[in-house]
Design brief:
This protein has 299 residues and is of the alpha+beta class. The chain contains nine helices and nine strands. The strands form three sheets. Strands 1, 2, 3 and 4 form a four-stranded antiparallel sheet that branches. It starts with 14 loop residues before the first strand and ends with a helix.
Length: 299
C-alpha cells in the first residue's frame, strides 16, 4: 500500500494497492500511454526493469495482516479544499448493523456547491434515522467527511455488470434533514433573519429554530459564510465561535439580542423594555395577532 509519492503507508492508513513480482504483466496491449501511467518502476526491487502495477484500489492493512478494500482511487473527491475518500465513509457505514448496501458520492447543489451524499439500503426489518447515521459517522470522521444528505432506498441501482449505477442515483432534495427536535418555525424578526441566512447558505427550503447547524449540513467553512452575512446585516462584530457554541437559531438569536442590548444606551433600553411589555400584553390579550411568527418559514 503506497501513498501518492509511492511511499509505504502505516498500518491502518489508506493507500493504493500496488502489485509486483515476476508474475506481473509487461503492460497493456497497444496502449503505451496507459502502460506508462500504471506500470511504474519498482523502488523496492533489486531486479533490473522490475515494475509495480498501480491497481487504483484504495485499501488499508489491518493489524491482523488482512487487507481491507475501501474503494477506488478514481472515486476520490475534493470538497471545500479537502480530498476525501468516499470508500472510507462507505466502509464505516457498512459497520452499522442496519445498513445492507451503501455508496457515497459527491453531488453538485443548486447553488453551485458540492456536498457528500450517502445512499443506503437497509437490512430487512431494520430502521435508522438520518440523525443516527450522522451521529454514528461523527464518532469516526471530522465534520467535512460526514455526508450532508442521507438518502434511504429500497435497493441501490445497478449497472448490467452488477456495479452501482451512480448516474441513476436520485438527486438529494433540498428538504430539512430529519432531526430529533420537532420543527419549530421562527418567532421573531431576528430568528427569521437567521433562518433566511441558514437556508440560503445550506441550500434548504426551511430550518427550525432548534435545528443544530452542523446536523443539517453545516460545517466550518459554511459557518464562516453565516457569520460574514450576519456581520454585514447587523453591522456588528460577531465572533465565529458563537455559532460553534450556540449552533441553533434560538440560541444564537438570544446571544445577538443580548449583544444588541449591551450596546444600547439606558434611555433607549427603557423605551425598548416598555415596548416589549406592551407587546407581551398585546400577545396575551390577542394571540392571533402574532400568528405570523409561528407560520413563517425561511425568508
Amino acid at each position: 500500500m503506497l501513498d501518492p509519492q509511492s511511499k509505504p503507508v502505516p498500518i491502518g492508513t489508506p493507500g493504493e494497492l500496488n502489485l509486483g513480482g515476476v508474475q506481473l504483466a509487461r503492460g497493456y496491449l497497444n496502449r503505451p500511454e496507459l502502460t506508462a501511467e500504471k506500470f511504474i518502476p519498482d523502488p523496492f526491487s533489486d531486479r533490473p526493469g522490475a515494475r509495480l502495477y498501480k491497481t487504483g484500489d484504495l485499501v488499508r492493512c489491518l493489524p491482523d495482516g488482512n487487507i481491507e478494500f475501501l474503494g477506488r482511487i478514481d472515486h476520490q473527491v475534493k470538497i471545500r479544499g479537502f480530498r476525501i475518500e468516499p470508500g472510507e465513509i462507505e466502509t464505516e457505514l457498512g459497520h452499522h448493523p442496519a445498513v445492507r448496501e451503501k455508496v457515497v458520492i459527491a453531488r453538485e447543489t443548486q447553488r453551485g456547491g458540492t456536498i457528500l451524499a450517502a445512499y443506503i439500503a437497509l437490512r430487512e426489518k431494520s430502521s435508522v434515522s438520518n440523525h443516527e447515521l450522522r451521529k454514528f459517522l461523527r464518532q469516526k470522521f471530522p465534520d467535512y467527511m460526514v455526508p450532508s444528505a442521507f438518502i434511504i432506498l429500497d435497493s441501490l441501482p445497478l449497472t448490467p455488470s452488477g456495479k452501482v449505477d451512480r448516474k441513476s442515483l436520485p438527486v438529494p432534495e433540498s428538504e430539512r434533514p430529519e432531526q430529533e427536535e420537532p420543527f419549530v418555525a421562527p418567532r421573531t424578526p431576528i430568528e427569521e433573519m437567521l433562518a433566511g441566512i441558514w437556508c440560503d447558505v445550506l441550500g434548504l427550503k426551511e430550518v427550525g429554530i432548534h435545528d443544530n447547524f452542523f446536523e443539517v449540513g453545516g460545517q466550518s467553512l459554511l459557518a464562516t459564510q453565516v457569520i460574514s452575512r450576519l456581520r454585514k446585516a447587523l453591522q456588528a462584530e460577531i465572533p465565529l465561535r458563537s455559532l460553534f457554541e450556540m449552533p441553533t437559531i434560538a440560541e444564537l438569536a438570544i446571544r445577538i439580542a443580548q449583544s444588541q442590548a449591551e450596546d444600547t444606551d439606558p434611555e433607549e433600553m427603557d423605551r425598548l423594555l416598555a415596548e416589549l411589555e406592551t407587546q407581551h400584553l398585546t400577545l396575551f390579550l390577542n394571540p392571533g395577532r402574532w400568528g405570523k411568527f409561528s407560520k413563517k418559514g425561511c425568508i
